[in-house]
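Fill in residues.
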């Protein structure tokens, strides 16, 4: 039985049993394997692309409502199916007898959400907007976190800047910070002195400031509010209450964060300055330790050496790492890290004005043990859009290059972690684990790629973009397992039927898919066997010919 399990696991590119096969190791391996399979089974999968004017099907509503119910703590077999089948008029008959008032209220919310999901308001709202007429406002955000975003088609407003992060976000930020540190401990890593963290504006808007609260918690800081409940600045949590050293957190901001949350930028900058200024033992305050070291080496003042919030210059967006990967216009990985530092090397202090400080940024990055970013929406994974590897990937590459400057060729790449908060209380995974999960539950999952193919031209383009983004992670971090490329090649290019379907729908993206796989091979992201490589080259040539109008039996 054990041999059969190992064979099946290896066939699915799941972790095999390593080391001595004693009883304890066997039990742990089976437990880990079971956890992997359950994670894939319960992963939330988007149902294709959103089409304006088309309401979700009953199957799609059922899947969405189940995820909402889980987030609300309501899990009862057959309940969601009954809600979708019976509708709003008979919801009272669906209430289980053992539900308390809170559960009844949550159930009513689910019933109302089911009704609102069936309604179409988006075309009407768009036409009113184009006509210059009034559109009712509504809070934006993630449906799983806030059902009040329904119905769609309204004028979205995002935040009250004076109350971000919210009380809930502060508490959740502390929990997520501890989850990250616990994962480091579970991986056998020492307590990190410096963590590089990516903050996006949209993620903070949807979570009421959860990621920024997490960054504050890692530093051992918290927001300070005035007597009217308005954000007034930062304050330090005493070390006795914190129970661990203050971690040095270097932050890179998205352009949207910079534009929408200037008060929060000053909050984060003030937290770093307060930590650097605190008269505490350097062994218990890594912010101060690294600040004083930089002051001693470069002769700058404390306020400069304590800068930890970096981003683009005013009016600029992105790191351009994604453009380099997409265009294949790079030779060495260092070009990607250089692009990131060049674009993101502007430091924001307590005044909130950006000043270029590349030398300081590289000095701080040389102490980074791991890089981190949150994912909080089921609609977008780390391989869905290129912005993830543009920021977190570029950040990680810049860290490795900074370490090379100080430690030489022996420097090791930082760990790259993802905080997946799409379900429940969230889970921290390595980048490799996250990409593997998304690849299996989306790209290699017929439920996902068949729904994409229903969108025709755009669906194929989306499939190709997932591959390009996966390669972007290989280019910036080198932490993508080769089997990912092998399985994608077999599923989409080496399967003649699938290749033909994709080529008919979008010949350009299909040819690009094959070329990306070949490029990944040339760049040593994976090494297919000779037979696979030849088949891939032939398929790529056929797709290129088709794109150019050259078909077998037809004149060129």
């Amino acid at each position: 039985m054990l041999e059969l399990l190992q064979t099946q696991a290896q066939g699915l590119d799941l972790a095999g049993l390593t080391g001595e096969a004693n009883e304890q190791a066997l039990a742990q391996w089976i437990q880990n394997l079971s956890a992997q399979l359950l994670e894939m089974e319960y992963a939330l999968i988007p149902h294709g692309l959103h089409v304006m004017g088309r309401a979700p099907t009953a199957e799609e509503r059922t899947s969405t409502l189940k995820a909402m119910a889980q987030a609300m703590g309501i899990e009862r077999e057959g309940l969601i199916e009954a809600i979708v089948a019976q509708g709003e008029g008979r919801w009272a008959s669906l209430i289980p007898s053992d539900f308390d008032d809170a559960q009844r209220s949550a159930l009513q919310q689910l019933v109302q959400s089911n009704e609102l999901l069936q309604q179409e308001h988006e075309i009407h709202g768009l036409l009113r907007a184009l006509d210059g007429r009034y559109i009712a406002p509504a809070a934006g955000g993630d449906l799983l976190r806030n059902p009040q975003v329904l119905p769609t088609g309204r004028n979205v407003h995002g935040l009250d800047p004076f109350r971000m992060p919210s009380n809930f976000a502060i508490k959740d930020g502390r929990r997520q910070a501890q989850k990250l540190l616990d994962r480091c401990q579970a991986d056998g890593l020492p307590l990190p002195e410096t963590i590089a963290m990516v903050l996006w504006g949209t993620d903070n808007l949807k979570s009421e400031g959860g990621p920024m609260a997490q960054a504050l918690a890692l530093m051992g800081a918290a927001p300070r509010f005035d007597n009217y409940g308005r954000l007034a600045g930062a304050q330090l949590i005493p070390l006795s209450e914190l129970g661990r050293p203050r971690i040095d957190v270097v932050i890179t901001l998205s352009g949207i964060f910079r534009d929408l949350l200037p008060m929060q930028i000053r909050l984060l900058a003030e937290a770093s300055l307060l930590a650097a200024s605190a008269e505490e033992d350097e062994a218990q305050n890594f912010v101060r330790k690294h600040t004083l070291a930089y002051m001693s080496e470069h002769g700058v003042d404390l306020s400069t050496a304590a800068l930890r919030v970096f981003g683009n210059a005013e009016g600029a967006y992105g790191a351009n790492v994604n453009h380099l990967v997409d265009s294949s216009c790079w030779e060495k990985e260092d070009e990607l890290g250089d692009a990131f530092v060049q674009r993101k090397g502007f430091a924001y202090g307590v005044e909130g004005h950006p000043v270029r400080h590349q030398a300081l940024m590289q000095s701080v990055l040389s102490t980074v043990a791991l890089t981190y970013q949150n994912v909080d929406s089921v609609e977008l994974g780390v391989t869905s859009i290129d912005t993830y590897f543009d920021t977190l990937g570029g950040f990680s590459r810049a860290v490795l290059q900074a370490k090379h400057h100080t430690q030489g060729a022996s420097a090791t790449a930082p760990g790259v972690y993802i905080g997946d908060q799409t379900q429940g209380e969230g889970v921290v995974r390595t980048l490799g684990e996250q990409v593997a999960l998304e690849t299996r539950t989306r790209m290699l999952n017929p439920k996902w790629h068949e729904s994409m193919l229903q969108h025709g031209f755009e669906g194929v383009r989306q499939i190709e973009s997932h591959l390009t983004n996966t390669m972007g992670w290989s280019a910036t971090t080198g932490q993508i397992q080769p089997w990912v490329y092998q399985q994608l090649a077999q599923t989409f290019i080496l399967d003649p039927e699938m290749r033909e379907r994709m080529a008919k729908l979008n010949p350009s993206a299909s040819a690009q898919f094959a070329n990306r796989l070949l490029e990944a091979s040339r760049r040593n992201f994976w090494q297919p066997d000779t037979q696979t490589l030849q088949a891939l080259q032939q398929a790529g040539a056929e797709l290129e010919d088709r794109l150019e109008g050259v078909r077998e039996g037809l004149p060129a």
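The radius of gyration is 25 Å.
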